[in-house]
Amino acid sequence: xxxxxxxxxxxxxxxxxxxxxxxxxxxxxxxxxxxxxxxxxxxxxxxxxxxxxxxxxxxxxxxxxxxxxxxxxxxxxxxxxxxxxxxxxxxxxxxxxxxxxxxxxxxxxxxxxxxxxxxxxxxxxxxxxxxxxxxxxxxxxxxxxxxxxxxxxxxxxxxxxxxxxxxxxxxxxxxxxxxxxxxxxxxxxxxxxxxxxxxxxxxxxxxxxxxxxxxxxxxxxxxxxxxxxxxxxxxxxxxxxxxxxxxxxxxxxxxxxxxxxxxxxxxxxxxxxxxxxxxxxxxxxxxxxxxxxxxxxxxxxxxxxxxxxxxxxxxxxxxxxxxxxxxxxxxxxxxxxxxxxxxxxxxxxxxxxxxxxxxxxxxxxxxxxxxxxxxxxxxxxxxxxxxxxxxxxxxxxxxxxxxxxxxxxxxxxxxxxxxxxxxxxxxxxxxxxxxxxxxxxxxxxxxxxxxxxxxxxxxxxxxxxxxxxxxxxxxxxxxxxxxxxxxxxxxxxxxxxxxxxxxxxxxxxxxxxxxxxxxxxxx
Length: 523
What we know:
By secondary structure, the chain is α/β, with parallel strands linked by helices. It folds into 2 domains: about 10-205, no CATH class; about 220-435, tm_1862 like domain (pyruvate-formate lyase- activating enzyme). The protein is about 40% helix and about 15% strand. The protein has helices at about 25-35, 40-50, 65-75, 95, 115-120, 130-150, 160-165, 165-170, 185-195, 250-260, 285-295, 315-320, 320-330, 350-355, 370-385, 400-415, 445-470, 475-505, 505-510; strands at about 10-15, 85-90, 105, 150-155, 175-180, 205, 225, 230, 245, 265-270, 305, 310, 340-345, 385-395, 420-425. The strands form 4 sheets. It has a 6-stranded parallel sheet. A 4-stranded parallel sheet has the order 12-13-14-15. A 3-stranded parallel sheet has the order 7-10-11, sandwiched between helices. Helix 11 runs parallel beside helix 13, helix 13 (about 320-330) packs across helix 15 and helix 16 (about 400-415) runs parallel beside helix 17. It is globular, with a radius of gyration of 22 Å.
C-alpha cells in the first residue's frame, strides 16, 4: 500500500500528449486527428480537429484517456488519496506543478511519430506530425519544471516501445523511467518507491495483461471501455500481439459504461484487439459471453453509439451469419448510428506472408486459407449490417511483387461493396523485426494499390464521419465544416500524391497512378 499524503496539492500528476487530451466525439475523429502534420494550421487543429478537452475549475480533466484513468485508479486503490493524484491536460499542467510534485506520469500512443499509420502519413505530407510536435512541446515544459522542482518523470502508454528503441529521444525528453506494459501489476509499487525517495529505474516492464483491472473513477475520453487486453496473434508490428488475450469482467465493463454515461457521454468505444473474441479462450470465440455482455449493455439508457474498434478475420468466420446479425441487432440504438464499423486487420492477401509475420493470425484455421477467410468475413460482416474498415500492411518482411498484386486483386473485391481500406507502411516495434517500409521502397504496384484503396475511402469515409458524429450529438456547424474540409482534402491529396508518385518511380511505371495516404474527413 502507498501511504496517502492527504495533500491539497498533488504528489502525482498524470498527463497525456495533446493529441490524446482532446474533446473528440467519435473514434474516427481521434484516429484522423492524430495522423495530421503541421501542414494543417495549428489554429485549425485546436479549433476544430483536436479541440482541448474540458477541465474543472481546479485544472483536473473532465475526461481523460483510458490509460491515464487506469493508472489513477490503480494508485487510488493502492492507498493514495484523490487529492494526491491529479489527471490534467497539457493546457492545465502548469497550474498543478510545484515543489509538492514527486512524480509526473506521461502517456502517449506515438511520442516520436513513428507509429505505422502516422509514419505512413508523414511520408506524403509537408511538416511534422502533431503527435511528435505537441509531445516535444509538452516534454519541454515538463523538463523546465523538473529542473525547478526535482520530480521524477515516468513515460508509458502504448507508444513506450518507441522510447525503448530510441534512448537518445527518451533522454532528450527528460524521462527517468520508461514503463512498458499494463500498470496494475507493478506500477503502484514503482510509484510507491519513487514517493519514498528511491532513485527511478531506467526501465520497467510489466509482462502480461495485469488483470484484474482497477475500475476507473472518472470518465474516459469518448467513453472508451476495455473489453479485453492482449491479443496473442504474434504480429511483429503490434505490441499486443505478444500477450495472450484476457478479458475484463462484464461487471467492470458495464459499471464503467454507466460511469461514462453519467458524465454526459453518449457514445461507447469497445476497446479490444478483437471485439468478436470477448469471453473466448485462445483463438476461439464465445458467442454466449459476447451476447450476454451486449444484451446488458443495451439496457444502459442514453447511449447512442457503440463503436467497435478492432475485429479479427478468424473470429468473424467462427460466428454464424445469424450470430453476427444478432450482435448487430444488439448494437443498434434508436436514433443511433446507421454504420457500425469495425477495423479488420487483413495485412495481406498472402496467407504465407501473414503467417510469417503473425504466426497465430489465422488460428484456429489454416493460414493457407487466409484469402478465402477474408472474403468470407467481409461478406458476412456486410450481410449482417456491419461496415468493414480493412487495413493492409505494405512492406512486410518477405513480401514479394506477387503478394502485392494478389493483395490488389483482393482489395478490388472488397471495395465492390461499401468498405474503407487503409494501407499502411510496415513499422516494426522491435529492432530485430525487419526494416520499416519507406516511399523509396515503393513500386508502381504499391502506388496503384494506394490509389485503389483511397478512392474507396473518398467515397465512404465522409459518410461514416457524418453518421457517427450525428449519433453522438456533434453540432451541425462542426459536421458541415469538417465535410467541407474533407472535400478539399480529397482534391489536394490526389494532386499531391500524383506528383510524389512521378518523383518516386519511373514516369512510365507511374503513369496514371493517383495515391493518397490520409483519410478524407477532412483530416
